[in-house]
């Protein structure tokens, strides 16, 4: 049975901070970002944007193409959750008027949870082919001002429809996975921003890649030469380059098996101008591959490496389906990116220092230009609204 991604679409915030602007404010050579970490822009969410509104923007174009009453489950992956008890997916479920005969649950483990939700969804469909499952991976990456992580912020959400006989990619059974209890990145409950040991996290990321690759090859008996394109979790673009070089060495790939730019570069282009989006990052990379690769990649094998700090990682593959191009939403993705408004550093700080979401009552100014926004918090209850821009 073929099971995988039938439709896929991403959304990002309506604003960005250019790292040229950021570098000028910090009196830093911009090449530290353009070349050093491979980043150019960060999508910045206004105070009335959160993972619920981002995910609604990501999912709406998919729901417009199907009978949304057929959605049997929403698996919502995020580390930017809005409530310690209620799933962010339930807020989104109400905002999008999904059917009540639907299960909704939130997944969490740093940037890995999107892959976990995808794997769970494929398992559910294999058990019951009538299932049509909406997988959401959505996050807003935020670090303290004047820390090393500040330049890698970003935001994004990816929605994926998982079905039998998918039109985009068949996710293959068999994967390599690895878990180790480490403290390379964490966000205690009392903090709105993450803490990270950057050099250590890079070391753990690359070790996890080696371990998952070894397990993957044992389980599937596939080799480097069996894979045509490689997608990695991208906290910053240079990480994908480091990862691919590490994998080439670990797999003992031959010169004939390696075409570095062709195998990885198309999947890096969107992340470079969006920034980190945690659980969504890997799948924005996959969409970037689909939207930017020049060739028809029908029947080609794509690998996915998901890494979540703390840490859990997984390496798996899928095979592209013939005719996949007919259901891509490339123009929508490119239009979103092009239509973002630039922020000055002062405007960025105004968004950054938003009202404390733990306050009992807040009414948010209307900065979000999308179809869905967080209107306010009353008696600690979040209220969302559909705006006039809804289509």
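Q: What amino acid sequence fits the structure above?
A:
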């Amino acid at each position: 049975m073929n099971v995988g991604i039938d439709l896929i679409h991403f959304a990002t915030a309506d604003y960005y901070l250019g790292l040229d602007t950021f570098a000028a404010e910090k009196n830093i050579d911009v090449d530290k970002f353009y070349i050093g970490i491979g980043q150019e822009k960060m999508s910045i969410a206004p105070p009335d944007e959160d993972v619920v509104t981002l995910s609604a923007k990501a999912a709406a174009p998919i729901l417009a193409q199907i009978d949304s009453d057929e959605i049997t489950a929403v698996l919502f992956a995020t580390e930017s959750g809005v409530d310690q008890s209620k799933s962010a997916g339930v807020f989104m479920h109400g905002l999008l008027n999904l059917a009540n005969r639907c299960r909704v649950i939130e997944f969490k483990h740093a940037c890995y949870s999107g892959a976990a939700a995808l794997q769970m969804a494929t398992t559910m469909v294999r058990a019951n082919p009538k299932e049509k499952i909406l997988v959401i991976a959505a996050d807003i990456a935020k670090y303290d001002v004047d820390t090393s992580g500040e330049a890698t912020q970003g935001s994004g959400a990816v929605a994926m429809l998982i079905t039998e006989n998918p039109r985009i990619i068949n996710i293959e059974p068999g994967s390599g996975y690895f878990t180790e209890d480490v403290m390379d990145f964490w966000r205690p409950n009392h903090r709105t921003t993450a803490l990270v040991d950057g050099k250590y996290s890079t070391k753990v990321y690359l070790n996890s890649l080696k371990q998952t690759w070894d397990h993957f090859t044992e389980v599937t008996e596939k080799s480097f030469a069996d894979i045509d394109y490689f997608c990695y979790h991208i906290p910053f673009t240079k990480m994908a380059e480091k990862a691919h070089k590490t994998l080439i060495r670990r797999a003992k790939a031959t010169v004939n098996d390696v075409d570095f730019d062709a195998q990885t570069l198309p999947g890096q282009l969107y992340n470079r101008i969006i920034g980190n989006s945690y659980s969504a990052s890997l799948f924005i990379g996959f969409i970037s591959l689909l939207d930017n690769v020049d060739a028809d990649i029908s029947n080609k094998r794509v690998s996915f490496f998901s890494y979540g700090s703390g840490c859990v990682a997984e390496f798996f593959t899928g095979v592209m389906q013939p005719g996949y191009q007919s259901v891509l939403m490339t123009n929508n993705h490119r239009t979103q990116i092009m239509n973002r408004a630039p922020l000055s550093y002062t405007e960025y700080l105004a968004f950054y220092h938003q009202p404390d979401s733990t306050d009992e009552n807040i009414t948010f100014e209307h900065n979000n230009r999308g179809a869905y926004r967080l209107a306010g918090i009353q008696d600690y209850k979040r209220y969302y609204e559909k705006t006039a821009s809804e289509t």
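Q: And what stands out in the fold?
A: The mean pLDDT is 96.
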